[in-house]
Structure formats: C-alpha cells, structure tokens
Design a protein that fits this description.
Length: 392
Amino acid sequence: MSSLTAQQAIEAARAVAATLAKDAVERDRANAKPHAEVQLLRDAALPAILLPREVGGSGLGWDTALRVVREISAADGSIGQLLGYHYMNQDLLVWLHNPDALALWGVRSAEHQWVWGDAVDVYAPATTLVGDGSGFRMSGRKSFATGFSVADVSVVAVAEPGTGSPLLVIVESTADGVAPGGDWDNLGQRLSASGSVTFTDVAISPEQVLGTLDPARATPQGSLIAPVSQAVHSEMYLGIAQGALRTAGEYTRTVSRPFLLSGVESATADPYVLATYGRLVAAVRAVEALADDVGTHVARVNAARDGLTWDARGELAVHTSALKVVAIETVLEVTSRIFEVTGARATSNAVGLDRFWRNARTHTLHDPVVYKQREVGEHFLTGTYPPFTVYS
C-alpha cells in the first residue's frame, strides 16, 4: 500500500500520462485490452487515493480524483474513462453507507490497488438473482460494461428479488460464470475495455450485496454517483481537449507550413492560425476554471456524508450539468478545429490527431447533452432541481 498526498497524486498522474502519450497512437490502432495501461495506474498507486485512510487508502477528496482523471485523459481518453469509472464504482462503498462492505472490499482494494469496473446500466435487460442457500445465483447479460475485462472487481446492477428494483452487487472478474463479450468495436474510446458481459449462474454471497440504486429508497449521499459521474465525464472531455491542443500546437510549431497566400514565413506567424488557437485556448481555459470550481463543490458535498441534504445535492447536480454542457461544446469544437490550424498533412494516420475527436464524439453521446441544458435552464427559471436518476 502507498498513501499519496494530493500533489503527489497529481504528479503521479502526470508521469503516467507522459508514458501513455509516447505510444498513444499505436495503442489506439492496436485496440488491445489495456492490461499494461491498468498496471501503470496500479504502479503509481492511483487506484486507492479516494479510499479512506482507515482501510489503507490515501483519504483524498474528489477534487484531487477529478484532476487525476483530467491529467490521464489528456494523454489517453480511454484510460481516463477507466480510472474515472473506477473511482465512482469504488466510492459506492462509501456513498451507499455500507461499513461492512467498506471494511471487507475497501481493505482488499487498497492493499492490492484494485481497479473496479462496472455493469450498472439499470435500463438494460434485467440481470436477476435467485436464492441459493444463504446466498444467490446471478444470471443475465449486460450489453454495456466498462472495464470488466481488465478490472479486479466490478459493480453489477441486478433486479432485486421480490421488488425488481436495481440492486448493486460486487463481482470478482475471475469468478466462474463471468464472460466478457470482447465485442467493443466503436469509433472511439477503444481501450476502455467496454462491451457486453454475460453472467451464467454466478455465485453471489451476502457480503457481495452492496446496496440499492432505487430512486424511491435513495439517500442524498447514496445518489451522488449520478452528479459525480457527470463531473467525471466532463473532466475526461476537458483532458481530451487539452491533449488535442497540446498535440496540435506542437505539430503547428514543428511541421505545419504557412499557406501560400498568407504572406508569412511560418504557420506560427499566420494571423488566422493565431486567432483560431486563441479562441480554442480561451474556451479550454474557461472550462478549466469551471471544472476546478465543480471539483471543489464535489469534494465539499461528498464530505458532508450523512448530513447531506437533497437541496445541497440538487445544487451539485445543476453545477455538474452546467460543466458538462460547456465541456462537451468545447471538446467537440477543439478536436474538430485543430485540423484547420495543422493542415492537410495532419490528417495522416501516423499523426493520429483523429483519436481525440473520435474519443470525444463517442463518449459525449453517453447521455444527451440537451437534457443537461434543460436541467440548467429549468433550475435558472424555476429553481427546480433535477430528480435523482442514474443520469442526474
């Protein structure tokens, strides 16, 4: 086990990101399972930074975890997604206020720097539990999961016996009857270890049952996964935009040629190139400022624990929705317009600038941003907070 300070965690993330950036293009093209990338995270002691000190973690806040996700995403959006989802899944041990689960699974997770995946899509065809002595058997299929094939443990949403409500259980990825589909073949986020997973008569003991995501039974603290997930997504988008700008900027400085009619001797002297970069840099810096503010807000709300109110939780949901709106707009603009300031040769597969847009375009479709716009607008006009769903 290794306990990190906030600054050490951010510096470790930057070091990992530097390593990931060296062969990001090649790894994206290869589309292999990211076992080596996950090991980099473990070696840097990043998986356990959110776990409380009493179970062996670093006890850091979500403001630090979000910054770490941003740093990793700047080099590789897929690995940023894996790590961000890991933090959310792991922190369910705290959010669902299950001290026994935290003591059992948290200690193991901190000791071995476990990485957590998930299959928590409550809208997918039901995965069910049936009684089996003192425990259960789980069967079914999830069409979408993240990290399952490279994670140590994963959180799975199942239909609660008797009620059908979404119940969360912890599953070790090597358990008998667990079969990742290996069918993730999408435009971007190619190394996020996503895709389907099938469960066939998987044994579930009582200590693997974590808690419920049923909105009718949720507490403000137990519902934090929804607004925090929006913050995680936004940090991924911000990191991708930062990485795209850095990569494009270096290309413009070293490779791009001035246009024939520009009348200047280098691309870095072209006033239109300078103005375009200025617009993109300004937009990214604005998102950075809002993201830092949201990170502080998430950490403060998370620290309230059982004292958190629904109104305070609602304020966070509106704040993270606002961040997501501008983060999506910015990352899509940046990752598209960088080609205008790098030139036609920058479309070469060897350069790999397209990976930033592909990653951003793929994940920004996670849930429609127009619903986040509506939530922010409705709160502005009427004071209404978004209701708790797995998306808000």
